[in-house]
């Protein structure tokens, strides 16, 4: 997480204090320099120096030394030490009364994974500056509460029109928009940045800022607007490795596999940019999304042999996925056997998923499930769900029931799926069977209409996607009909501007049945539906999908 407010460089110089003024100023400047270095050893020295200074008979003013010490504690993630500093600040009446100290405390708790505590301090700060708002927005975004960060940004726009957002504000908002799939708010933040920089010089200034442009490439790539991401990329006069990585991955995730690999070749051959481990995760992901087995083998070999990059678990995971989904399960197992690290549950689940889709046989599927369950992991329920689908495909309903009982007895629950859609700058979130939305009645009426048109078009539900939640075929079909992405699509058809794509973010992989109906809806309603699931993007248009039914 960036240090927006707690950086010692943002503090005013300490005023003279008589005979000890020079010594105090030197000590505080040294403390700030150690904190600014962003190195663990120097941050430790900063905390020791702070302790030494405030153990002396004549310590420097805490309002100048505390922010630097808090910055060092934040960099180290040193929550116990940070709490001691907080107690001292409270004792001296500086928290949350002193804005700079309060900002530093917000940053400290955010860096230590305590966003709720950070927000509470922000709320109690009496005189909030732009830096205060920036730090609080970044605290939420950096800890995964992207919708909360966007709500706080809207609050700042509404309640503090006197504070003009700067590049720090916009960068945090762009990151939150990218994670939440909030394209229209991201476009607004982009326009806001151009406005604040001034009409005459804005375009040139933004195009020169590599960090801001990387955020824009990431934003548009993650919000389903890959053409806008490419436009930003192509207009950049300077690019760093992160720029290339973001664009290669964006193209891969949108199914533009050849464009992704072509850009990688241009990067390494024409531009002479040396790839890193992250680059090859993007490249191998492209091969996985495109089912390019030979290319995957070649790029993996080049990574090790030509570029000397030691494979990580992510690279092995991509190779296993490439091979297993192509039906080369034995070769995928050979890759696992040759790994230089212990396979994680994701690799075993990838193999189990391939066994399920390829009907590889119950014995092999059960062996993969056992290996996945043997690895300590929070996603055990995902293994049970996949295994239940294997049994359902084999019509082994008693075993499906056994899996359900095991999950119940062991306290495991299937990870709840949700889908979100942005409309007019607000993000609307749905779960399966959701009735909490203000437009629920209209949404379900539209859903009934969609269902009738699907049936008339020859749609038949794939009941194997609902074995864990229903017992009879009619109930299974009804359960599928209430999946969260269908509610989001129904909401989108009711509210989207005619001709505009419906953009949906889903936290799980899209199921086979929802994939089928999304293709049909795109044709029946003449609408493009862009779904970002846990793995990749699906662009549904004219009855087909960009993944070519390979996902």
Q: How many strand units?
A: 6
The order of strands across the largest sheet is 2-1-3-4-5-6
Largest sheet: 6 strands, mixed
Task: Indicate the mean pLDDT.
Answer: 87
Low-confidence stretches: 1-19, 467-474
Structural class: mainly alpha
Inertia-based shape: globular
What does this structure look like?
The protein is mainly α and 551 residues long. It has 27 helices and six strands. It has a six-stranded mixed sheet, with helices on both faces. α7 (130-142) runs antiparallel to α8 (146-159), α9 (167-180) packs antiparallel against α10 (183-197) and α12 runs antiparallel to α13 (226-235). The radius of gyration is 27 Å and the shape is globular. Residues 1-19 and 467-474 have low confidence and may be disordered. This is DYW domain-containing protein. GO terms for molecular function: RNA binding; zinc ion binding. Residues 458-551 form the DYW domain.
What's the gist of this structure?
This protein is mainly α. It has 27 helices and 6 strands.
Question: Top keywords for this entry?
Answer:
27 helices, mainly alpha, six-stranded mixed β-sheet, globular, 551 residues
Helices, strands, pairings?
Layout: H1 21-36, H2 40-54, H3 62-76, H4 79-91, H5 99-111, H6 115-124, H7 130-142, H8 146-159, H9 167-180, H10 183-197, H11 202-208, H12 210-222, H13 226-235, H14 241-253, H15 257-270, H16 277-290, H17 293-305, H18 313-325, H19 329-337, H20 345-357, H21 362-374, H22 380-393, H23 397-409, E1 418-423, E2 426-431, H24 440-456, H25 473-481, H26 484-495, E3 502-506, H27 512-524, E4 529-532, E5 537-541, E6 544-545
Parallel strand pairs: 3-4
Antiparallel strand pairs: 1-2, 1-3, 4-5, 5-6
């Amino acid at each position: 997480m960036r240090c927006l407010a707690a950086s010692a460089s943002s503090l005013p110089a300490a005023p003279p204090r008589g005979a000890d003024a020079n010594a105090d100023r030197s000590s505080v400047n040294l403390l700030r320099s150690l904190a600014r270095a962003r190195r663990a050893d120097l941050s430790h020295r900063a905390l020791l120096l702070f302790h030494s200074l405030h153990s002396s008979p004549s310590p420097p003013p805490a309002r100048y030394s505390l922010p630097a010490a808090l910055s060092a504690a934040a960099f180290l993630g040193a929550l116990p030490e940070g709490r001691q500093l907080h107690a001292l600040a409270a004792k001296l009446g500086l928290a949350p009364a002193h804005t700079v100290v309060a900002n530093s405390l917000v940053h400290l708790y955010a860096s230590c994974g305590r966003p709720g505590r950070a927000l509470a301090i922000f709320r109690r700060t009496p005189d909030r500056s732009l830096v205060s708002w920036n730090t609080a927005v970044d605290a939420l975004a950096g800890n995964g509460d992207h919708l909360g960060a966007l709500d706080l940004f809207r609050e700042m726009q509404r309640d503090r029109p006197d504070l003009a957002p700067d590049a720090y504000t916009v960068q945090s908002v762009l990151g939150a928009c990218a994670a939440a799939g909030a394209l229209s708010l991201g476009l607004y933040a982009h326009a806001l940045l151009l406005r604040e920089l001034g009409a005459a010089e804005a375009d040139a200034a933004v195009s020169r800022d590599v960090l801001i442009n990387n955020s824009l490439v990431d934003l548009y790539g993650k919000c389903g607007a890959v053409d806008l991401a490419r436009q930003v990329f192509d207009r950049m006069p300077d690019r760093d490795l992160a720029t290339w990585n973001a664009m290669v991955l964006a193209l891969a995730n949108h199914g533009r596999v050849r464009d992704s690999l072509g850009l990688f070749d241009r990067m390494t051959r024409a531009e002479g940019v040396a790839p890193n481990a992250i680059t090859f995760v993007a490249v191998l992901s492209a091969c996985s999304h495109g089912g390019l087995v030979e290319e995957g083998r070649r790029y993996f070999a080049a990574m090790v042999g030509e570029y000397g990059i030691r494979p990580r678990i992510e690279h092995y995971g991509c190779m296993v996925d490439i091979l297993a989904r192509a039906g080369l399960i034995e070769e995928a197992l050979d890759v696992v056997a040759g790994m230089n690290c212990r396979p994680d549950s994701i690799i075993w689940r990838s193999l189990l998923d391939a066994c399920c889709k390829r009907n590889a046989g119950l014995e092999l599927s059960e062996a993969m499930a056992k290996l996945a369950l043997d690895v300590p992991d929070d996603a055990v329920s995902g293994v049970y769900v996949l295994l239940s689908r294997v049994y359902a495909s084999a019509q082994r309903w008693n075993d499906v029931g056994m899996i359900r009982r095991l999950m119940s007895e062991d306290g495991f629950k299937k990870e709840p799926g949700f889908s979100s859609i942005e409309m007019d700058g607000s993000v609307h979130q749905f779960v399966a069977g959701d009735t909490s939305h203000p437009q629920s009645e209209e949404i379900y009426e539209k859903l009934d209409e969609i269902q009738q048109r699907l049936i008339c078009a020859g749609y038949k539900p794939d009941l194997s996607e609902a074995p864990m939640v229903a017992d009879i075929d009619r109930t299974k079909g009804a359960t599928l009909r209430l999946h969260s992405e269908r509610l989001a699509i129904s909401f989108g058809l009711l509210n989207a501007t005619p001709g505009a794509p419906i953009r949906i973010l889903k936290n799980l992989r899209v199921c086979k049945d929802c994939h089928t109906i999304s293709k049909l809806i795109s044709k029946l309603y003449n609408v493009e539906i862009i779904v970002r699931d846990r793995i990749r993007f699906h662009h549904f248009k004219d009855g087909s999908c960009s993944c070519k039914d390979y996902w």
